[in-house]
Fold each of these.
Amino acid sequence: MAVAEENTSPEASEKSWHGVVLQTLKRNDIRLVPYVPDRVLTTLIRNLHADPFFTTFPTAREEEAVGIVSGAWMGGMRGAVLMQTSGFATLANILASLAVPYQIPLIMFVSERGTLGEFNYGQSLVCRTMRPVLDSLAMEHHTATRLDEFEFIVDRSIKQAITTQAPVALILSPLLTGGKVFDK
Amino acid sequence: MNIAANNPARNTKVMNRFDLTSRLVAKLNDEEAVIGGIGNTNFDLWAAGHRPQNFYMLGSMGLAFPIALGVALAQPNRRVFALEGDGSLLMQLGSLTTIATLAPDNLTMVVMDNGVYQITGAQPTPAAAVADIVAIAVASGLSNSTWAADEEDFERLIDQSMSASGPTLIGVRIDDKPGTGTTRRDPVQIRERFMHGMGVRELL
């Protein structure tokens, strides 16, 4: 899986999870992609930077990225935010006071740490807070584990977020991405 | 505000949030966007006269500048103003570096600095006695950051920002008066009207 992740040729990226994310964002005219980086997201972030279609940049905090894409949405530009599990854990206040009540189709990709081979106890604990927070706000979320379903999940979730004006979290399981392992 | 009196910007006049907000709104004639931060900042924006291009925050302390950055990126031909309190900005100082990096020339930020969390009982902020918010902004890469000396200077700096070649940040020292009005707390309507004001949506 690590081999697939490192392969960045356009042809191969069509078949990789990060290639699916990039192409599906593009197909849905999602141009603005602020992020707080994660090891698992490295190739995706690099490829987004390399593609002039996207305006992509790091932010200091995940909250800030959510504010930026919310403002952009209201100005007519679509966006999505990339983060890891611990970053999601910083968002409860603004999901509850901005994205959900203002009905903003916030699209989040969360690289999942804390499970399936986690080596840092704190990460595994913070991971357990993620789905309860999403459920407590009745937010749509999916955990992507398989490449053959992934494009369907991403494409349909983006379209549903926009048409229903509701946020969505797409959780990228280590089963999909390979995750982060101890020796990295 | 006395607490702020010892910090390096002490030569600036202590002004009033509602008065300054009204002065800003009176200048707007080209459907400029205005993002009002949480609490008194958006209450005074509301009280200065509602307009469809105003966005009022009902939570998410500290996100006025990031939201304004998003609007500015989406609509580079529209001037975007963001009004934020000093306490709110302290929550997201990192956002100043993001804005400095992206450097949109259509963004004007105003920091209403009274050195206190007025709305929760006027407790001093941790920055009040020691930090200079404009100096923080400059050090974050926003070289076009200035304290307004008085109301006239504030108006001049606002005018200047309209043709600036990068983002502008204006610090204003304000008193500890509460907000003048109270924003109607209807988030969906606020968002929908704002999108209409931005030319993105037709109202139902």
Note: Strands of chain A lie at 30-35, 55-58, 78-79, 81-84, 107-111, 140-144, 168-172.
Amino acid sequence: MKAVFLASITALAVSSSLAQAADPAVVYDQAGKFDKSFNEGVFNGVKQYTAETGIQVREFEPKNEAQVEQGLRRLAKRGYSPIVTVGFNMTSAVEKVAKDFPNINFTLIDGVIELPNVQSVVFKEHEGSFIVGALAAMASKTDTVGFVGGMDIPLVRKFGCGYEQGVKYTTSNATVLQNMTGSTGAAFNDPTKGSELAKSQFSKGADVVFAAAGGTGIGVYQAAKDEGKFAIGVDSNQNHIQPGTMLTSMVKRVDQAAYKTYKDAAAGTWKPGLVVLGLAEGGVDWAQDENNASLISADMKAKISDIRAKIISGEIQVHDYMSDNTCNY
Amino acid sequence: MSQAKVPAWVNVALIPILNILLAFLVSGLVILAIGENPIEAAGYLIYGAFGYDEGIGYTLYYATNLIFTGLAVSVAFKGGLFNIGGEGQAYIGGLGVGLICLSLDHTMPFYVIAPLAIIGAAVFGAAWGYIPAYLQARRGSHIVITTIMFNFIASSLMVYLIVNWLKEDGRMAPNSRTFEENAWLPYLHELLSPLGIDIGDSPLNLAFIWALLCCVFVWGLVWHTRWGYQLRTLGTNPTAARYAGIDTAKVTIWAMLISGGLAGFVGLNEIMGVNHNLLLNFTAGYGFAGIAVALMGRNSPIGIILAAILFGALYQGGAELAFEIPTITPEIVVVIQGLVILFSGALEHMFKDRIEGFFIRRAVA
């Protein structure tokens, strides 16, 4: 224990004494690092890295648009590198700051920038959503399933579109009820409305609801628990939130994206460019743990494994909403 | 009678400063409770807001938005109207600016685009204030309710327009394309650097000057015109105003048009000055903060400038504080801001009577 402590002190001392200090940093988006979802996923990656190496990661949580750029600029000025930035909202800010600080490395999660010092990490959310959609259709007895999105933006529609395709793949005549929570950023943090939307979908016959809505999902999962229906979590593995009624979670391994950036940077293997993480790369998947083991039959598991393999091999092509802004497949 | 004997500086300076100090004192206790040094925290906050050129630039940039929304609230308030819709009016004002910039930036030079964008911001913001104003004046629907509702309608409309029509193809973020540079309001640091003045790299831009001009405009309009007199009469006593032959419905509608137009100028600062593209949620609560700014500034332009700078300093210094001391989260900074509003807004009378009494007794003695 003491040795680890000493080692980390030394590591800190060494890294900060170098001119090009390799102190890593992270800038969360405005939802904050404890959103139980997307940002918290990144935070988990940060924690994992700190636990393994003892190196502290400098964290910043901006509260408005201007603070994003301000914070990035300040971190860059002090030589923090690599800086992991979370969420497509930061795209333009990262672009500006990365141009001004060509020696600092940035990793942008969920957005794409073509600069020699930026790594862009995007996920094939449609593939993961397809898997949980297929699973939802298998678990549904009413052949009606629901989708609760956060803010009505293309990225969230991408989840909904993949989900719908997965549902239709399993049960071609199934009904997919879709609702968006709202039109402001608050739509990602409105459990009350999430619960209301889920309840209205249940009353229309849905018995499985997938929430791609950040913190709003908490209300959806609670509503499912209250009514004895199933819910599907998103981004992080959320199965533990309501054990027994969480069918699964569509995990998006943002934690690994952050972790790998720090790890690669420390090893000198970090590279700029576009990184696309889908099912094949383990970037998205469905969550299985002791909390949902009893809900997934061996038959379901086998079918899902089959679908996974088909998506990875390219036999099933999941349409990406964002490729043409429509959900025609 | 007693009011006359209290020196002016007591009301204008002493009481507000006491209230702010008290707010900081309580904030210090909060910071102490989470295990940090309040003196150090206050140091970061003040240094971050006023300690160096860039910090001052950021403070004034935030203040620009707050001056616009503060003025908007105060003009309506002078007429007895509580305009809670600054947020939505600012949002739609930004739409006006964005549409002008997007449609003209390829063909027109800056000096054509800038005045049109100013008009666009004012017209769009005013239009968003018009409907609640009409409903209040002619139908008796309460303006507090309708303006709040219009904030939601504004954000839904913006999402619809940006996501479905204005979004740049092939980009993840729901933004319009970036304007050409001739549609950018120049930054003040760019304007001043040829003169050899270095004020650090901050988003402070020409909109700040426009905000100050708006203060002069509001001061003239409200205190030195016939219309301003009608407005203030309406605000003080609507029955008397009607008895005196003032068309109260008309004054109500015009007050809201001017209020909405002023709020719309936030779009000028944010869209044309800083972001250079049309994006979602750029208003970030400035419309609501404007209510606190107007209350603290006693609805007078000078007071609003000072209150806006104080709030700008809290935004900027607060960000600095959260950055330097990671255990002080952005939520704690919101607590500090809330305490300042509480003590100088809601609890402003706590000391007022006692202090005034002290000065009256001294004057009498």
Note: The first helix of chain A runs from residue 2 to 17.
